[in-house]
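Before a computer can learn anything about folding, someone has to put a protein's shape into writing. The outcome of that step, for a single protein, is printed below:
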Amino acid sequence: MDWLSQLFELMPVRGSLDIRCLFGAPWNVVESQAAAGEIPYHIIVQGCATLSDPGGREIVMLSAGDILLLPGGAAHLLHDGSGKTPSTTTVRHGVNLVLNENSGLGDRLDMLCGRFQMAPFHARMLARYVPERLIVHTASRVITPNVDAAKISDENATSNRLAALAGLMRAEADGDALGGRAMLNAYSAALFTLALRLA
């Protein structure tokens, strides 16, 4: 068994997709410190987002296909980058997840938000070995003469699988189909493994 599979045998991970955000600018999403053992994640399906955090770390731009994981569960702020007061958000509870929408008429964002859950001890151990803000790009890299072509090819194959998985999650989130919550949670767990493989 490979080391990443062994890791997940020792540290079981459950995933849940909880919220879908469909926003027009201006918008923001404020997340407080996650509970022990929880790792928040965000998938930018369409549009762009700006990541800020209370700790004053570097502001990061995220675009369609990017996946953000916060292994330490740090508080953070995602916004459209305009600096304007966010439009009013409405919250609608579906069968399988919560839909947040706003009245903004600017650039559109489609974002899936969820959490990975593991034993608090395992989450603390993992947080020591990965960045506090892990950003995975699913866009394929171009092979150039000075890079390992086989490595890039493997990374691109994983990127393609990750992008396809995000597409499946978006499709499942589009409706309230029977068994949808179970499917979204299973996809979330697979997302965690693929994201770490790519990272």
User: Anything to note?
Assistant: The two ends are 19 Å apart (CA to CA). The mean pLDDT is 88. Helices lie at 3-10, 120-127, 149-173, 180-198.
